[in-house]
Write a structure and sequence with these properties.
It is a single chain. This protein is an all-alpha fold. The protein is built from six helices and no strands. Helix 1 crosses helix 5 and helix 5 runs antiparallel to helix 6. The protein is globular and about 35 Å long.
Length: 111
């Protein structure tokens, strides 16, 4: 029972982090002007997945992890997750795992 609860909590956290990363990505994107939003209504209904951008953000996240920059790694990994095509299930699972581990390290009390 506690494991199921923890899994639910982890899923909720991942969903929240995914939503935050998506909002952050959209707010910092150079093409996120009001004109580009009104140009294509159908694209706004579906998330914009981009494997190349997901890969770039993943590599940046790994580099940040290696450099000990957990905040930067956390952000980059969440951007990667938000851009990762959902049919890439192993990549999504790997990103969720890395995000979870990074989050745990960020919230770990320092002695």
């Amino acid at each position: 029972m506690p494991e199921a609860l923890m899994a639910e909590i982890n899923t909720a956290i991942c969903n929240l982090e995914y939503a935050r990363a998506t909002v952050l990505l959209e707010s910092t994107s150079p093409s996120s002007s009001s004109s580009s939003v009104s140009n294509d209504e159908s694209s706004s209904a579906q998330p914009q997945f981009d494997a190349r951008k997901a890969d770039q953000a993943y590599k940046a996240g790994c580099a940040a992890l290696a450099a000990g920059k957990l905040d930067e790694a956390f952000l980059s990994l969440n951007v990667s997750l938000s851009k990762c095509p959902p049919d890439q299930t192993s990549a999504v699972a790997k990103l969720q795992s890395l995000i979870s581990l990074t989050s745990q390290q960020l919230h770990k009390p320092t002695n």
